[in-house]
Amino acid sequence: MINLAAGQCVACRGGEPSLTDAEIEDLQFHVIGWQVKEVDGVKRLERVFKLKKFVGAMEFTNKIAVIAEEQGHHPLIITEWGRVTVQWWTHVIKGLHKNDFIMAAKTDELLG
Amino acid sequence: MINLAAGQCVACRGGEPSLTDAEIEDLQFHVIGWQVKEVDGVKRLERVFKLKKFVGAMEFTNKIAVIAEEQGHHPLIITEWGRVTVQWWTHVIKGLHKNDFIMAAKTDELLG
User: Fold this and answer.
1) CA of B28: how far to CAs of A90, B20, B49, B73, in Å?
2) What are the tens digits of pLDDT across the range B3-56?
3) Inter-chain contact A80–B77, Cβ cutoff 8 Å?
4) Among candidates B55, B68, B79 on the partner chain, residue whose Cβ is nearest the Cβ of A61
């Protein structure tokens, strides 16, 4: 089991290929609970977290924002009563990068 | 022009009817920029706001969370780089209530 959560995002400037399906499958094994979802032909990693009321959802959203700024990699976050949905993908390569799996693992760690 | 932003949400316990299409049309005139969007047969008020980077989007999201707690009425917020999408609707009546238009107007005021 590799420790993705301890990883650091590397700069991704485009031109790099997105992960292949086989690479995605390998990495997904390390972030149980995250699903690959395709939106407009672009694969995203998505997980839904249950939180306490709206306040708990906002607290979690803010924690995610902190790691996003630290790593210079930003998700889409849907915040609602009792629930936060997080999506990580890499816009510049229109797909999934190892960075997204690192961020997914870091997101899981925030739950403590 | 009625001043929706100065309104206060009233407790909505279900059993009340949702707004009719005519009532929605009348109120929508007072919150220009908000669209009615139907999700799973439930009407929601939605507006997309452009913000500065992810940080600006998070700041706006947190401001919305404050008015949501104040009024005891909570939205769905999609926060991403440079953009916040806000949806207001009333779960308990599975539709739109005047409260949602009040919250939409209050959301607009946050932009200052």
Assistant:
1) 36, 12, 17, 19
2) 899 999 887 777 788 899 999 999 999 999 999 999 999 999 999 999 999 999
3) yes
4) B79
Contact B80 A61 (CB under 8 A): no
Nearest by CB: B68 against A54, A76, A78: A54
Using the Cβ of B24 and the Cβ atoms of chain A, whether some distance falls under 8 Å is answered with no
Q: Does A45 touch chain B (CB under 8 A)?
A: no
Q: Hey, are the CB atoms on B78 and A81 less than 8 Å from each other?
A: no
User: Is the pLDDT confidence value at A1 over 70?
Assistant: no
ipTM for the complex? 0.95
Residue A105 lies in a domain: yes
Q: What's the rounded Cα separation, in Å, for the pair B61 and B84?
A: 7
Report if residue B16 sits inside a domain: no
Residue A81 near residue A60, CB atoms below 8 Å:
no
A70 and B CB contact within 8 Å: no
- B69 is a domain residue: yes
* Entry pTM: 0.95
Supply the CATH number for residue B47's domain: 3.30.1360.20
The continuous run of DSSP H or E covering A28 comes out as helix A21-28
3-state secondary structure of B76: strand
Q: Flag whether pLDDT at B95 surpasses 80.
A: yes
Name the domain count of chain B: 1
Over residues A53-64, the pLDDT tens digits come to: 999 999 999 999
DSSP 8-state class, residue A60: H
Q: Note whether residue B13 is domain-resident.
A: no
